[in-house]
Amino acid sequence: MRERVSREEPAYLRQPETVAEARQRFSPAEMARTLSEINDSLQRYEATALADVAATLADVAESLPRTAREFQVMNREEWMTPDEAARHLNCTSTKAFQEIIAKESVPRHYLSERLPRYSRSELDKWLMDR
User: Fold this and answer.
1) 109 in helix, strand or coil?
2) Domain range enclosing 40
3) Cα 113 to chain centroid, rounded
4) pLDDT (average), residues 105-120
5) Is residue 113 assigned to a domain?
6) Number of domains observed in the structure of the chain
7) 8 A C-beta contact, residue 47 and residue 54
8) Mean pLDDT, residues 15-22
9) Does the residue 14 lie in any domain?
């Protein structure tokens, strides 16, 4: 004999109650208390979220001068794109350089989200250590 399967939708798929339906189920005092609890919860959540944002911004503000100093110290010509790094290592092509990168642990840095940069001195050291 087959077990009967319930056709009732899970709670998360059901349409929310309309205000009129909620008024019929709950007294005004219950609704006011529930809305007050929701408001308190949202305010606590907002305060926590804002505190986290403030802490993150404080960390960034604290590290920003150090990062700026580090970038000033770095020689702009020291950082190379993949094409420049390939030429520096006398690779036959950028594709050949990319194959080397895939196989070996060539030091690289992401100064932006898109394109890795290679330090001339780190590449030279890597080459000498091989």
Assistant:
1) strand
2) 19-73
3) 11
4) 85
5) yes
6) 2
7) no
8) 72
9) no
Indicate if 117 and 82 belong to the same structural domain: yes
Distance CA 97, CA 123 (A): 12
Q: Rounded to an integer, what distance in angstroms lies between the CA atom of residue 33 and that of residue 31?
A: 5
Q: Which residue from 80, 67, 90, 83 is spatially nearest to 122, judged by alpha carbons? A: 80
- Tell me the pLDDT band of 6, cut-offs 50, 70 and 90: low
Tell me: do 59 and 81 sit in the same domain. no
- pLDDT at residue 50 in the model: 95
Residue type, 113: E
Kindly tell me the burial class for residue 123, based on how many C-beta atoms sit within 10 Å of its own C-beta (0-12, 13-18, 19 or more). middle
83 and 58, same structural domain?
A: no
How many angstroms separate the CA atoms of 83 and 13, rounded? 53
Structural domain includes residue 82 = yes
Kindly report the average pLDDT of the chain as a whole number: 83
Say if residue 4 is exposed, middle or buried (CB neighbours under 10 Å; 0-12, 13-18, 19+): exposed
Measured in degrees and rounded to the nearest 5, phi and psi for residue 79 equal -90, 130
pLDDT by residue (tens digit) across 21-79? 777 777 888 888 988 999 999 999 999 999 999 999 999 999 888 888 777 766 665 88
